[in-house]
Amino acid sequence: MSGTVLELTRADVWRTVLEQLPTGVYLLDGGQKIIFWNAGAERITGRLGQDVVGRMTRDQLISRGEPGVAPEPAEESPVRLALRDGRGSKADVFIHHKDGHRVPISLHTFPVRDANGHVIGAAESFEENVASTEWDRRKSKLESYGCLDEATGVLTRDFTESHVRESLTRFSTHPVPFAIVCIHADQLEQIRSKYGPRAAQDILKVVGQTLEHSLRPNDIVGHWEVDEFLVLLAECSRSEIEKVGERLKKMVSYSEIKWWGDAIRISVSLGGTTVFQGDTLESLLQRAHQAMSASISAGGNRVSILEV
C-alpha cells in the first residue's frame, strides 16, 4: 500500500472528511446522546456543534409525521432498532431548526459496530428533501430580484399579489380551482408589550419559515400585512382547503422561540376561501379576511372557511 493511501486511511483523516461534509451527520451513544455533529448538520439546522454535542438527544431534534399524530413507540424507533437489532432504516421526518421552525429532511439511520462486529452506537445522516432544496435555490434568485421580504424571508406582498392576480386570470379560461388563506399571528401585540418588538419580529419569521416548509412546491406564501401572511394554494378544491388549513395551524403550533429564558409558543388564526367564477382580487380577499376575523374573534388558533 502506497504512503498516500496509508495517509488517506488514517482515522483522523476520515473524521475531517465527515466533519466537512455538506450532508448532515451525527453520532449517538447507547443512551442516544449526540457525541458528534458535523458542518452539514450545522448548516441545515443552524445549531453549532458546541450547542449540541453532549447537550442534546435525538428526540429533542427529530419529529416524525404530522404534528398531533401519536409518536412511534420507543421500542420501534429507528435508533432503537439500530442499537438493538443492528438494522438500518430511512424515513422522511422533520428536524427542529435553531430559529424555531421545522425543516423536512430525509434521514438515514444505521448501526455503528466495533472491530468485533458488536453494535456500540448509531449514526444518522440527513439532508433537506428535494422540494425544500429546490425552493432554497429559487429563493436565492428571487432575493436578488427584490422579491423576498427581508423581515420574514418569504415573498413580498407585491410579488404574492401578482401570483394571485395571475391565478384569477388563468381561472377565467381554465377553471382549475385554487384557494387563498389569510393567516394572522396571534397575540403579537401582547408579546410586543411584554418582550419588545424584536421578539414579535422573530415570531413572524418563524411563522413565515414554518409555513414555507409546510407547503407543496407549487404553493406560495407571502408577508401580507404587519402580522399577517397570505398563502396561495394551487389546485385546491373546497373539500381540501380546511384540511390544509388545519395542517398549517398544527405545524405552526409546534414552533416556538426562546426569549431570555422564556419559551414563547406560537399560534395563528386562519381564514380561507376558494375561488369562484367572477371573483376579483378584492372579493377573494374580502372573504378570506372575513373568515380570518371570525377565527380571531373566536379566540384564535383555529381555522375558518367562508364560501360564497
Description:
About 2% of the residues have low confidence. The strands form 3 sheets. A 6-stranded antiparallel sheet has the order 2-1-6-5-4-3. A 5-stranded mixed sheet has the order 8-9-7-12-13, sandwiched between helices. Strand 8 and strand 9 form a beta hairpin. The chain has 2 domains: 126 residues, Beta-Lactamase, CATH 3.30.450.20; 174 residues, Alpha-Beta Plaits (2-Layer Sandwich). The chain is an alpha+beta fold and 308 residues long.
Query: The CATH topology of the largest domain, please?
Result: Alpha-Beta Plaits
Low-pLDDT runs of 5+ residues are 67-72
What would you call the shape? elongated
**Average residue pLDDT:** 87
Defining traits:
308 residues, alpha+beta, Beta-Lactamase, Alpha-Beta Plaits, 2 domains, six-stranded antiparallel β-sheet, five-stranded mixed β-sheet, 11 helices, 13 strands, 41% helix
